[in-house]
Write a structure and sequence with these properties.
By secondary structure, this protein is of the alpha/beta class. The chain contains 10 helices and 8 strands. The protein has a single domain, classed as Arginase, Chain A (3-Layer(aba) Sandwich).
Length: about 325
């Protein structure tokens, strides 16, 4: 029996028509009827430089209307196998960081109670911390991080602990993430200090810099990642600045010398044996975008992640 929840067919209603939702799915608030949900977190209160990621969910919804139902390689659709819907946006407070962290955690606690698996569209990278506080409330989980920055700095501007550069340091400190089951890929760019990566390395985090990735090659790098993750319940976080700004200019902290979109797709497809209990795509900043390129990249990557989580890629 096929699932009843499906995106609007592009041959029935033009893809540019109707109200924008993620992948043209219906908006359904009843989580008990869903296996997976897609939600926006329109908040960038952790941003330290170029803002605008709060506008990411709305523009990714628009761009996602171009994404059709079936994966181009497997020819399978996650919508044939699972009930998936857009559940709207997480409540946030644009003028109060602490309140937003609490609101986001509460929202995802309600998702976890129903065993629905969330795919979130941010928002800056600090949103991952309250999401992990909800999803890992029963114990630490693994983490795969696609990124150009480690986001494990301790503090900014005189000791402030909560920015988009600190979420995964806090996550390890709070025992939300097992550092031995944590791998980050694509790290590059200039540093504040030669010891910027030392703390994460000392905790046991596996760091594959962009240079190490190309030295190792695709297959060896993916083997390392899959060996670290194993079958441990894990979270996938995808910072769009992991992709080279040639392909994704609309982001707050661009770093040249990154992956192409094609490479990112191949990487995600090779993670389909991992046991992901949630995922996010973050740091899409439409005010800095060109021709909605980055929003389309974000929507395409989100679909790849959805297919990987549902084993339909």
């Amino acid at each position: 029996m096929k699932n009843k929840i499906k995106p609007t067919e592009g041959m029935t209603t033009p893809r540019f028509a109707d109200v924008a939702t993620f992948f043209r799915l219906p908006v359904i608030k009843d989580l008990n009827s869903l296996d997976y949900c897609i939600c926006g977190v329109p908040w960038d209160g952790g941003t330290t430089n170029r803002p605008g990621a709060r506008h990411g969910p709305r523009e990714v919804r628009n761009a996602s209307s171009l994404v059709r139902l079936y994966h181009p390689v497997s020819l399978k659709s996650p919508y044939d196998k699972f009930n998936i819907a857009d559940i709207g946006d997480c409540p946030v407070n644009p003028i109060d960081l602490d309140d937003s962290l609490k609101r986001i955690r509460k929202f995802y606690m309600n998702i976890k109670k129903t065993d629905t698996i969330p795919l979130s569209i941010g928002g800056d990278h600090l949103i991952s911390l309250p999401i992990l506080r909800a999803l890992a409330k029963d114990g630490p989980i693994g983490l795969f991080q696609f990124d150009s920055h480690s986001d494990t700095w301790d503090s900014y501007f005189g000791g402030y602990k909560y920015t988009h550069g600190t979420p995964f340091r806090r996550a390890i400190e709070e025992n939300l993430v097992d550092p031995k089951k944590y791998v980050m890929l694509g790290i590059r760019g200039s540093l504040y200090d030669p010891a910027d990566m030392k703390w994460a390395q000392e905790q046991g985090v596996t760091i594959i810099t962009i240079d190490e990735y190309y030295n190792n090659g695709f297959e060896k790098s993916m083997q390392i990642i899959n060996d670290v993750l194993g079958d441990t319940p894990a979270y996938l976080t995808f910072d769009v600045d992991g992709i080279d700004p040639t392909f994704a200019p609309g982001t707050g902290t661009p770093e040249v010398g990154g992956f192409s979109v094609r490479e990112a797709q191949l990487i995600i497809r090779q993670l389909n044996k991992a046991n992901f209990v949630g995922a996010d795509v973050v740091e899409i900043s439409p005010p800095f975008d060109l021709n909605n390129m980055t929003s389309l990249v974000g929507a395409t990557i989100a679909f790849e992640i959805l297919c990987t989580m549902t084993k339909t890629n």
